[in-house]
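A sample follows:
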Amino acid sequence: MAELRGRPRFRIIHRSAHRGGPVPRFALAPRPASSAVNSLLAFSLIFFAILIPHLPLLTLPYFWDEAGYYVPAARDLLLSASLIPHTTLSNAHPPLVMAWLALWWKLAGFAPLVTRCAMLIIAAAALAGVYRLAFDTANREVAIATTICTALFPPFFAQSTLAHLDMAAAALTIWGLIFYLERKTVACLVAFSLAALAKETAIIAPVVLVVWELAGHALEERTHRKLCAVPRSSSRESLLLLVPLVPLALWFALHWTRSGYVFGNPGFFQYNIAQTFHHLRALLAFPQRLWQLTGYLNMYLLTLAAVGAMFFPPLTEAARREKRGELIDLGERLRQRISIPTQLALFAVILAYLVTLSVIGGALLARYLLPVFPLWILLCVSTLRRRIRMWYVLVALIAVSFGLALVFPPPYRISPEDTLAYRDFIELHQAAALELQQARVAGPVLTAWPATDELRRPFLGYAAEPLATIAVDDFSAAELQEAAQHQDWQVAVIFSTKYEPPQGSLLDGIAWWRRVHERWFGYHEDLRPEAAAQLLHAHVVWSDGRGPQWIAILARDPRPL
């Protein structure tokens, strides 16, 4: 065996003719694990690198689910040390992220700036994990490119400062995969257990790895080919990966004893689990989940590039070693790829997420896939480097396209939280709350969630004083017709609850597609301010808009605010 100094290490394998004659070829030996010092250095560099572009976002008030659940739940934990929220209906989400926020508020004060910096720390830890996973399974070039693309991918960038559970679940899942592949059993179980306590769906990764190992080892005996990334002496070792189920089960047991519900309040359970268990809905949801993973917000550019690269043969590169201060040419070898067993393990996790989140989860939010976006990017970038000579140019262009997708809306519907559109949503609602405050509106105000919480709870950063509200589900014609019958409101705040493309969605012309989304995915069409005012027998006294998003204040009294 001959070894190259440093990374990577090789063993010589003599093969038959290559380019007209026998030339030694090389197979990659297992990489040593990255040191804790290197990981800490990577985390520090990444944190300050992502802090700069996020600076304009750090003081924004809380958005959508932040305002509706996560921040109130964390605030309850801060003020009363209660793991079960009492100022909002409990959704039974594990408390790790809420405890993290409460800790930072205790140390630095209750403010959006503290919240967003705390979440940015988690995002930096996730990206440090992406770098280490790519470095250990591929090489430094792939690691740098994968980390940059992941950081710029719009859903990842936007979620980096939002107080949701998915970024923490992604960070801990990625580190769990790192320790799994490095065969650090205790660290792997701890990381996966914490991931499940960050968000219950993170249990998908360890469970599917158990299933894959049991199936993979059975296939290995038949095919005599190595398929599993981690060798096991018995199935009992594989079953150790089910340990993270224990703390998650204990949390649900505690939640049941304190609230009377195992999986959250009845409304939450009905929306996210009960009504989603239908084979037709799952069949309709899966291609949308697959689109989110492989095509959403310019991801299709990376996917198509990787698929196209598979039609090209692997490239070769020179291999050398140093002996007594001299470099010795060892010929050429094929460019490195991620080992097949490792690829199969990553694909198993990706597929399990796609299938599971097609069956559960009322809203098809892209952030639910945060744990597997980096895995897909890693596999695609590694493929490009192995087969395309100018791969780094392609990756740079794709990274730029991710940055553009953050700012410019695509020709299809998205969730505002997947791009910087969420900032526009927040600032529009801030402006409306300020108008109500300056007009000294006493309420009640007719509006829909999340504006109901924004106006009732000053600690969310919108209203200086709490305003009474009357809630409607949305601003569709049916809802507003019913609201028009009530006489106990004088002012209404209506806004775009869905992000509609400026020129309409590409699929709007397909009638059955609209019916499917109305039936299974909660789609509705908000009436514009003028039409809503006519239906409510009111007048538009103030309005504002940014791109396809808008907000308006309606009053039954025609006088301006």
User: Anything to note?
Assistant: The chain has 22 helices and nine strands. Residues 15 and 24 are 6 Å apart (CA to CA).
